[in-house]
């Protein structure tokens, strides 16, 4: 079958104007190369390092926002492409939330884990990210205080962060992202 190509931001989340992020393309593929597309238009061929290729956006501007995808080609033939990754550039007007984990950052497999994102602003909703995933894992509302993992497994480990927003009159105001937190599942 065709290889699976994934795309994600490192660090994940909304980028501020002037900020930076890296778009990562990943595939367990043999020989070939990645081409990065934005809004359906070819941007760059990317240099591959093992199973990954990266494209860094530095000094981000509004024009860097859009839907990006990675295409994997061998010769001139497209073998696979990632889903679209929505990159947003927005002013980060709210203070960063605090991310914590209960019972702790190191847990045994099977343990119950709660990731808590504490926004600095009452009524804000927060997105929880796991580095390596193309989308937020969850949207936490003011009524949901934590993202719960009932039986942690090794795949739940990784670098988590959260970012909050408020919405008024169809306008979103975003916070900076929390400090990342590493969850280890043994």
UniProtKB/TrEMBL annotation:
Domain (Ig-like): residue spans on this chain: 3-70
Keywords, alphabetical: Disulfide bond, Immunoglobulin domain, Signal
Origin: domain of life: Eukaryota
InterPro entries named in the record: Ig-like_dom, Ig-like_dom_sf, Ig-like_fold, Ig-like_Receptors_ImmuneReg, Ig_sub
Any GO BP: immune response-regulating signaling pathway
SUPFAM superfamilies assigned to the protein according to its UniProt record, in alphabetical order: Immunoglobulin
Coiled coil: none
Gene3D superfamilies found in the cross-reference section: Immunoglobulins
Protein name (Swiss-Prot/TrEMBL): IGSF1 protein
Organism, as annotated: Ramphastos sulfuratus
Name of the gene encoding the protein in the UniProt record: Igsf1
């Amino acid at each position: 079958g065709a290889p699976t190509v994934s795309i994600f931001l490192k660090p994940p989340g909304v980028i501020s104007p002037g900020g930076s992020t890296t778009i990562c393309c990943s595939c367990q593929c043999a020989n070939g190369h990645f081409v990065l597309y934005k809004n359906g238009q070819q941007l760059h061929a990317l240099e591959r390092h093992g199973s990954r290729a990266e494209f860094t956006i530095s000094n981000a501007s509004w024009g860097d926002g859009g839907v990006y995808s990675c295409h994997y080609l061998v010769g001139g033939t497209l073998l696979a492409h990632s889903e679209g990754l929505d990159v947003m550039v927005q002013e980060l007007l709210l203070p960063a939330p605090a991310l914590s984990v209960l019972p702790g950052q190191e847990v045994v497999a099977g343990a119950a884990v709660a990731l808590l994102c504490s926004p600095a602003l009452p009524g804000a909703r927060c997105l929880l990210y796991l580095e390596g995933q193309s989308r937020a894992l969850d949207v936490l509302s003011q009524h949901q205080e934590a993202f719960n993992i009932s039986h942690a497994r090794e795949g739940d480990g990784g670098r988590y962060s959260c970012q909050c927003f408020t919405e008024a009159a169809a306008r979103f105001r975003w916070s900076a992202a929390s400090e990342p937190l590493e969850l280890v599942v043994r």
